Amino acid sequence: MEQAELIVLDTIDLVWAYGLILLTFGLARLQKVGQEKEFLWASVRMVAQLLAIGYTLHLVFAIRSPLPVLLILLVMAGFSVQVMAGRVKGRMPGFYRVVGVSILVGCGLVSFYFCLVVVGFTPWYDPRYLIPLVGMIIGNSMNGASLAAERLHSELAERKDEIEAALCLGATSRQASQEAMRSAFRAALIPATNTMAAMGIVSLPGMMTGQILSGTEPVVAVKYQIAIMCAITGAVAITTFLIVHRGYRTYFSRAHQLLDLSAPKS
How many other CB atoms are found less than 10 A from the CB of residue 251? Predict the structure, then answer.
């Protein structure tokens, strides 16, 4: 297959593209949705953060050392927890500890397996592969983890009377919370399930589109997309499983008493 020439976007092209953001801002203002400033600030952050990571990756690619690569991955994981903390309305006690450990373990295990066993690139820290792949895994896991943490909190609050009645009848905190945990885990898997069901027919995923635009043969891009979707789904499942099964216990005392859900969270 003949290799297509890559079209490089310049600053003027990006200005034209950003016009669509301004159009969205105008529509939001017309509708008086009340979040125009947050939307505009988020778009400015998006541009600044992507430019910053672009220049940083340019340097890291040139250095080719594992230390800066691992440092970038840790910053990405830490930042994802911080974004979640701002997004989740009802945070569980010990939110940063539970979510941080879950993301590190869930995304770390899946990334290690995917990069070393499935893709198998060398050296293992090759930033050209490791950073984009782990970034997609962490980003998607963050969305699933947000849904799981928020749903777990809301389910426990809504089922407070039911849970306390079960505890009075001798159930443990795990037994009393089982339905809330099941609902939270189910909610976290819905985006991944919907994405896989629509992929290839309703939507073309970004990674595959980017590879095709850069001149990669479509079949090769599709194989990468299938593999990364499997990795993302596995990371979302492990991360949210850990959040649900470690998080529910933070709502109970050592004597298995349900804590006051309106109390300030850490």
Answer: 23
The string of pLDDT tens digits covering residues 119-129 is: 888 888 888 88
Structure tokens at 160: 């407070």
| pTM metric for this prediction | 0.81
The token duo for 214 is: 């850069």
With contact defined as beta carbons under 8 Å apart, do 35 and 43 qualify? no
Find out whether 85 and 91 touch, Cβ atoms under 8 Å: yes
> Residue 258 is which amino acid?
L
Q: Sign of the CA dihedral 82, 83, 86, 87? A: negative
Calpha distance 257→259 (Å, rounded): 6
Strand extents, DSSP E, the chain:
none
3-state helix, strand, coil in the chain (%, to 5): 75, 0, 20
